[in-house]
């Protein structure tokens, strides 16, 4: 009887430890730092790709973060794209059906535009610093909007540009 209790206790402890490891891998933050930019994003998101090094000697830099969830048996992906470009002609933003608002991001002035439809949600924040334009944009389905908004806000709150 004691042996069964010991085995049961070991199994329970193993399950608790495994649940903790899984929870820690999904929650918490990852950090991104390259060149003159750094920010944090949730562990549930992954870097899809990085272009350039976010320094003033590169023409264009970009990091794309991806979140995928299986909702009702179908995968639904969301993307957050952070990029910089040296001039305004590099910025092409579709502003149809959008609302725009001035916001403050890391003590920098920024313009934020958003557009929502039945199939897609999109928000873009444009920040200007030292003649460089930084854009933070998300594109997602309505199924992943809450997770995307939370990750987007976290990036905006932790964004540092030196």
Helix-strand blueprint:
Elements: H1 2-26, E1 29-34, E2 37-42, E3 46-51, E4 61-71, E5 74-85, E6 99-105, E7 108-116, E8 121-129, E9 132-140, H2 145-158, E10 160-161
Antiparallel strand pairs: 1-2, 2-10, 3-4, 4-5, 5-9, 6-7, 7-8, 8-9
Q: What is CATH's topology name?
A: Protein Transport Mog1p, Chain A
Number of helices: 2
- How much helicity do the residues have? 10-25%
Radius of gyration: 20 Å
**Estimated structural class:** alpha+beta
| Level-2 CATH architecture | 3-Layer(aba) Sandwich
How many β-strand runs? 10
Major beta-sheet overview:
7 strands, antiparallel
Give the class-level CATH name: Alpha Beta
How does the overall form come out from the CA principal axes? elongated
**How many discrete domains?**
1
User: What number is the mean pLDDT?
Assistant: 80
Distance linking N and C termini? 65 Å
The CATH H-level superfamily is Mog1/PsbP, alpha/beta/alpha sandwich
Strand content: over 45%
Uncertain segments are 89-94
Strand order of the largest sheet: 3-4-5-9-8-7-6
Order of helices and strands: HEEEEEEEEEHE
Quick summary:
The chain has 162 residues and is of the alpha+beta class. It has helices spanning 2-26, 145-158; strands at 29-34, 37-42, 46-51, 61-71, 74-85, 99-105, 108-116, 121-129, 132-140, 160-161.
Question: How does this model look, in words?
Answer:
The protein is α+β, with helices and mostly antiparallel strands. The protein has one domain: Mog1/PsbP, alpha/beta/alpha sandwich (Protein Transport Mog1p, Chain A, 3-Layer(aba) Sandwich), CATH 3.40.1000.10. The protein contains two helices and ten strands. The strands form two sheets. A seven-stranded antiparallel sheet has the order 3-4-5-9-8-7-6, covered by helices on one side. Strands 1-2-10 form a three-stranded antiparallel sheet. A hairpin with a 2-residue loop joins strand 4 and strand 5. The chain starts with a helix and ends with a strand. About 4% of the residues have low confidence.
